[in-house]
Amino acid sequence: MQQTYFAEDIRRVKKGVEGQGVCKFLNPFCETFGYNLLKVGGRQELASLPQMHPVLLAIEAIFNSRPIAPLSSDPNDCKALIPAHFIIGNSLKALPERAIVAENDINHHDEWSCIIAVKQRFWHQCSREYLSELQSRTKWVRDQPNIQVNALVITHEDNMPPQHWITGRVISVIPGKDNRVRVVEVKTPKCIMRRPIHKLALLLV
User: Fold this and answer.
1) Which residue, 6, 23, 25, 153, could crosslink 200 as a Cys pair with Cβ 3.0–4.6 Å?
2) What average pLDDT does the segment 84-93 reach?
3) What is the mean pLDDT of the segment spanning 137-155?
């Protein structure tokens, strides 16, 4: 694919042409300046490795912030175990940043604005796919047990900032006439919310 559509860009990269944005259109793979980078999210505005470095760090932080299991069996503990606990022994922190929801929100003359845009696009895609993976895809094939009280879940919320996962404990279930649970009440560190089960991802021990 790259050889077909980006032959000229690849030729210039192999010659060591830097500083002219020759890498920005290589998609999805680009071997540039001695580093193997996987470029995702479409055509990028960031061309060089120094510009991509903050993005790669942000992507690493997103992966290391994913909830993978309950941190304890305490029904009052809403925290989840994340990969960062194995690396630094604590959760990761993310500074507040302006949400970029449309292309015209990006200031293409501001490098940091472009970095934030790439980071947020990756976050929205990654978080949706991760929650989808956690949700069982066999529910249409065979019966699944009802979600239980005290189970730790991730709630799917739109427009959440990067590295921000809402986890909580199920405090009550609301079965239907067929005795199947489709709605539950979840207690998070900040509030109690009622959510349909298709908006939840169960974290197993």
Assistant:
1) 153
2) 87
3) 77
Q: Please count the structural domains in the chain.
A: 2
pTM of the model: 0.68
Residue 123's contacts (CB-CB under 8 Å, 6 or more residues apart) are 62, 161, 162, 163
Same domain, 87 and 25: no
Q: Are residues 116 and 36 in the same domain?
A: no
Q: Judge if 160 and 99 occupy the same domain.
A: yes
Range of the domain at 70: 46-205
SS3 sequence of the chain: CHHHHCHHHHHHHHCCCCCCCCCCCCCCEEEECCEEEECCCCCCCCCCHHHHHHHHHHHHHHHHCCCCEECCCCCCCCCEECHHHHHCCCCCCCCCCCCCCCHHHCCCCCHHHHHHHHHHHHHHHHHHHHHHHHCCCCCCCCCCCCCCCCCEEEECCCCCCCCCCEEEEEEEEEECCCCCEEEEEEECCCCEEEEEHHHEEEECC
Q: What's the confidence (pLDDT) of residue 169?
A: 95
- 148 and 183 belong to one structural domain: yes
Residues 87 and 58 in one domain: yes
For 8-42, the pLDDT digits (tens) are 666 666 666 554 444 444 444 444 444 444 444 44
